[in-house]
Design a protein that fits this description.
The structure is a single chain. This protein has 305 residues and is mainly alpha-helical. Helices cover 67% and strands 1% of the residues. A hairpin with a 7-residue loop joins strand 1 (117-118) and strand 2. Helix 2 (35-47) runs parallel beside helix 7 and helix 6 (128-139) crosses helix 9.
């Protein structure tokens, strides 16, 4: 994807990153938002959203994904292998990482067209998951941490519940927004000669790269369970709680499919599955007392009518 030789400048970049990490972890350098700031910004964000939800297909995310991928290619196409600027060394040394991230969000968002969209203060409707990610990253100054992300999203969910298709794309949306910010920084770095501004932008660039790595290293099944109302409801079934992540995901996807075919919400269908399983458990101890039996064999016929 990128016409570079990753690792060629790794020695210089390692020293550079160590300097940035040292600054990042210094008690006098950072202004990491506390939980109050996270909640406050989350509540402020959702208060600006319109109550009307637009679910008509939209090409916004596929288009954003395509344009961002194209601009990343153009950015790398303009880099010179013999340029000794620190930020150029930084990008060249991380071409594999950025190639992987670009491929990941492009694949994940290519066909995402039906996420719930809302207007913000009368503007055109945008996917609310995208809006949430945008405000989160702005709040934390592009420093992704699983714990701050969970706090932020769950603060929003005190007022609304994200659908599972929104939860499933949070990771590629975070990757997309971080890459868009990286492009902004790259553009500024190519235009400025001010030493202090260059240092500030280089610091931000290093932070974005660390966040992209943190996204890949995070346990997204764990994050999902912290955010998903459906998962929390289904854990009322002891068997479900002991299942492996793939099996739990198959049941959650069954709930999402049923919600698409009914008037009931995902949470309502999950709760109905739990209640039917409990009732079956009072009558017998067979497979029908497990929530999965309801989800795989009977829910489509009895939910949402």
């Amino acid at each position: 994807m990128f016409d570079t030789q990753p690792g060629q400048h790794s020695g210089l970049f390692k020293r550079y990153v160590l300097q940035q990490i040292s600054a990042l972890t210094s008690p006098t350098s950072g202004e990491r938002p506390d939980n109050v700031d996270l909640r406050g910004n989350a509540l402020s964000e959702v208060s600006d959203w319109s109550s009307q939800i637009n679910r008509k297909p939209s090409s916004f995310l596929p288009r954003q994904s395509f344009l961002t991928s194209l601009r990343i290619r153009q950015l790398y196409g303009g880099l010179r292998q013999d340029d000794r600027a620190e930020w150029v060394e930084c990008l060249l040394s991380n071409s594999r990482l950025l190639h992987s991230v670009t491929s990941a969000f492009s694949t994940a968002l290519r066909h995402v067209r039906t996420l719930a969209r809302v207007s913000v203060c009368g503007t055109r409707p945008l996917p609310r998951a995208y809006l949430a990610v945008r405000t989160y990253l702005s709040t934390v100054q592009e420093e992704f941490l699983p714990q701050t992300f969970v706090i932020f999203i769950n603060a929003i969910q005190e007022h609304l519940t994200f659908d599972m298709d929104e939860l499933w794309v949070f990771k590629p949306l975070l990757q997309l927004r971080l890459m868009q910010r990286l492009l902004q920084i790259g553009s500024e770095l190519g235009r400025t000669s001010d030493r202090d501004h260059l240092q500030k932008l280089s610091f931000e660039l290093a932070g974005i790269l660390e966040s992209l790595r943190a996204l890949d290293q995070a346990n997204w099944d764990h994050i999902f369970t912290k955010l998903s109302a459906v998962d929390q409801i289904l854990r009322g079934d002891a068997v479900y709680a002991q299942m492996d992540p793939a099996s739990r995901d198959s049941y959650r996807r069954a709930v999402a499919e049923m919600a698409l075919r009914s008037r009931a919400s995902e949470a309502e269908i999950a709760q109905q599955a739990i209640e039917v399983a409990r009732q079956a458990g009072c009558e017998s101890a067979g497979y029908s007392s497990h929530v999965g039996y309801f989800l795989t064999t009977t829910a489509a016929n009895c939910c949402g009518n």
